[in-house]
Write a structure and sequence with these properties.
By secondary structure, this protein is mainly α. The protein has one domain (2-265). 72% of the residues lie in helices and 0% in strands.
Length: 270
């Protein structure tokens, strides 16, 4: 951590660029065990839960009613691990920022990179790259393993079927946006516990609160959009249609959180 904090300081003041800060942030991210473990849990949990759900659904296929079979979406079922992945992705994003405040390293970081918005941009770029790669790997692995479980026992999907590749690929990208939402909250709140609680409230609790309101505003909540739109192949009544709409709206949420976090970061002392 101390090496990564001083890496940018070796560059003459005013001469460093985004790429220099990104190198430091990449070293820093790899050095923090908590972030590594959370990201590893995101991948493992996504695959394990997806396979488990496929095992459960395939074993009950023979006893399903006609209505249940009509609603059966094998692609969405194999992505059941996405119920856990958003929490892990968001926590990783929070820790990338709040972890420095907790350890006191933020003072060294800001001394090396006084341009705070550039610092946040570098963190966002590195976090996006890492979570996008890991998210896509986890989601594709979950889909392929889950469909292998379903094959021969219940209807299954392939990536060649209409909508399947789009659902899998966008789900992995969605996890990267959730991580950026966590990063923005981490920059705004600074304390890990508070930022994680705020993230969990927005992603996990808010949908249940919105369900009680007329007009189904819960369909615009991050977790709901992922499950009912982004990761879905078949349209679900009263929710956003499968496609890019949910991903685009999640990008707006992440951008708003980063803008708020960047604004606060640039106006407060370390």
């Amino acid at each position: 951590m101390t090496v990564s904090a001083t890496a940018t300081a070796t560059i003459p003041p005013g001469r460093y660029r985004l790429v220099h800060v990104m190198r430091s942030e990449w070293t820093k991210l790899r050095s923090v065990r908590s972030v590594r473990w959370v990201l590893a849990a995101m991948v493992a949990g996504t695959v394990a839960l997806g396979v488990t759900d496929c095992l459960v659904e395939s074993s009950s296929w023979a006893s399903m009613t006609a209505a249940s079979r009509a609603r059966f979406d094998p692609a969405n079922i194999s992505l059941a691990g996405l119920a856990f992945a958003p929490l892990a992705a968001g926590i990783a994003g929070v820790l990338v920022m709040s972890g420095e405040y907790g350890s006191g390293l933020i003072r060294s970081t800001l001394a090396a990179v006084p341009r705070r918005r550039l610092l946040l941009a570098a963190k966002a770029a590195v976090l996006t790259a890492v979570t996008l790669v890991l998210g896509e790997a986890a989601v594709f692995a979950s889909f392929l393993a889950g469909q292998a479980v379903l094959a021969g026992r219940a209807p299954h999907a392939t990536l060649a079927q209409p909508g399947a590749l789009r659902a899998v690929a966008l789900s992995g990208a969605y996890l990267a946006l959730l991580a950026l939402l966590g990063l923005g909250l981490g920059a705004a709140i600074r304390r890990s516990a508070g930022a994680v609680a705020a993230y969990a409230g927005l992603v996990l609790v808010l949908p249940y609160v919105l369900l009680a309101l007329p007009g189904n505003p819960a369909r615009f909540a991050p977790e709901t959009m992922l499950a009912s739109s982004v990761a879905a192949v078949r349209p679900q009544p009263h929710y956003l249609p499968p496609g890019w709409e949910g991903l685009a709206l999640m990008a707006v949420y992440a951008a708003a959180a980063l803008a708020a976090g960047g604004w606060l970061l640039s106006r407060r002392d370390a």
